[in-house]
Amino acid sequence: MTLHRKGVGRAVVYIFLILFLIVELFPILWVVATSFKTSIDIFNWPPKIWPNPVTLSNYAYIFNDMNLQNYLLNSIIVAIITTVICIIIGIPCAYAISRFRTGGKGLSSWILMQRMIPSVAIIIPLFILLWKIHLLDTWFGLAIAHVTYSLPFGIWLMIGFFGDIPIELEESGMVDGCTRMGAFRRITLPLVVPGLVAMAVLIAIQSWNEFLYAVILTSSRKSQTLPVAISVLVHPVTDILYGEMCAAAVVAIIPVFIFTLSIQKYLVRGLTAGSVKG
Amino acid sequence: MKKKITLSNQEKLVGWKMATPALVFFLVTGIYPYIMNIYYSLTNWNLIHSGPVFTGAANYIKAFADSTFLLSVLRTFGFIAIVIPLEFCLGLGMALLLSREDIKGKNIFRSLVLLPMMLSPVVTSVIWKMMYSVQFGPLNYFFKVLGLSDGRTEWLSDPKLAFPALAVATIWMWFPFSFLVLLAGLQSIPREQYESAKIDGASWWNELRYITLPNLLPSIMVVVLVRFLDALKTFALVYTLTGGGPGSSTELIYYEIFRVAFRDFNIGYASSLSIIVVLVSILACGLILKLSRKYASYEY
Predict the structure, then answer these.
(1) Can you give the residue range of the structural domain that contains A230?
(2) How much is the pTM?
(3) Same structural domain for residues A15 and A86?
(4) Of chain B residues 261-290, which have a CB less than 8 A from chain A?
(5) Residue where a domain stops, chosen among A15, A33, A55
(6) What ipTM was assigned to the predicted interfaces of this complex?
């Protein structure tokens, strides 16, 4: 932009950007590298960047001895339940707000507020409620907690997506004999599918990453998610198993990394939903 | 181009019907819990011992004399006051660089820069536990190589260092949010303003001061507000990285309430603390909004 004509060369900017990225992402690379190191390498001084020899023993340990796949499964199931609930009850609500102005400005800003209000305000009553209806330490109970913040987020994002589709498209469908619902299903819905996929991915990632609700609302391997299992490794009763801790973190990073790159186009919009227009 | 749509009553009804499932969910999770929270906050209720016993405002009176709680509130505000400006500066710097028109591969740079904010806070804890490790951590190594320390710094167990260490991990994870919002804001500033400044021979600094920042004000507001509310929720990093210690030097408010509610099972008291925190944060948000309006009117 303005640096341009001040004679700061493009090359300098590239070099700076790349150096910045190296510094910024070094901590992640360090954890990935450590997950492949033998314990001798891990405790080496000065620290060795590259694992030599490369070992998979840390991964073998977390899956064979720690049974990480159990927590992995819990995480996946909770993320799926959360996403499905958000989509099923979120889409119609967002469509109604976008097309029929249901609830007016009041409803849509109230939904935005739900996303903003600190979660301490509901966590204790939610805990008591789930306890009374015997949903503590279950997949569904945790998923409900995740829906409380994902649903407002999803609806807000979808209102924007539906708003992008010109209403004339639906009207022309209706002229051609579709009912309103038919026009919604055959014309609007297919057009917003890419946005919906991005939204679903973001909701699943949020659920996958979430820690506060997970640590409070689950108490056994029946429903504890990956972040809870990892937190035990980070803050252990006895010694820290560094290699194993890093391997578990890598398992948690990989899906996030893949999915983040897969929805690049919608990422900015999704991550700033409710805070930036369009 | 917005077309005014007139809705038939039938369509209004369809709208409400479509919204019903979500509204029912919000009723259960967005209204009921607040009411219950207020009720719990007026009771003495320890989950282990008994059911709730109504005690009126006793919990609130207790809270305002509870130095552990008050200190954790102050500490949290201090934490926020450190974290947000630094995140903002980092984010703005990177956004200014990436908003240059002649940079190729912007999307890839952008996705890589924002990677930390996509991670689970628990993964961030793992990452910084490794960085801060005393015996073999890269940070101690770099500090020693640069001659800044003897390479034996106890980042997480020194009462003076644990708090800044926690702040650094938080900034690392969340500056990409400032970056994203500010980048979007920069890209919407009309080019003509820069062109006329160029004709007037404005310096780089003056352009930043008189064109970029005033135009960015709405985005800056968003960054400050959203990050204020999110930084308030800092929990996982405290829980896993420092456990609130050493001493209580990193005990932020969410951790404190968690401790009272789910370690001591003092549900009634914890509820009153959570309500105080929500009220304080609403007040703070109002203040931020008000200040920004005042500032904005000076700018234009």
Answers:
(1) 62-271
(2) 0.89
(3) no
(4) 261-262, 267, 270-271, 274-275, 277-278, 281
(5) A55
(6) 0.89
Q: Is A194 on the interface with B (CB under 8 A)?
A: no
Using an 8 Å CB-CB cutoff, list chain A residues near B177: 271-272
Contacts of A48 in chain B (CB under 8 A): none
B116 and A24 within 8 Å at the Cβ level: the answer is yes
- What tens digit of pLDDT does each residue of B75-123 get? 999 999 999 999 999 999 999 988 887 778 888 888 889 999 999 999 9
Nearest CA to A39 out of A243, A240, A250 is that of A243
> In Å, how far are A77, A246, B175 from A139, measured between CA atoms?
7, 26, 32
Please tell me which residue, B159 or A117, carries the higher pLDDT value: B159
- Is there a single domain that holds both residue A24 and residue A73? no
pLDDT for B248 beyond 90: no
> Residue A1: its pLDDT value, please?
46
Contact between residue A217 and residue A142 where contact means Cβ atoms under 8 Å apart: yes
C-alpha angle with apex B68: B65 to B69, nearest 5 degrees?
70
Mean pLDDT of the A193-211 span = 91
Q: How many structural domains is chain A composed of?
A: 2
Contacts of B134 (CB under 8 A, 6+ apart): B140, B152, B153, B154, B155
Residues of A in contact with B34 (CB under 8 A): 121-122, 125
What CATH code would you report for B65-299? 1.10.3720.10
The chain-wide mean pLDDT, for chain B, equals 87
Is A257 at the interface with chain B, CB within 8 A?
yes
| CATH code (residue A117) | 1.10.3720.10
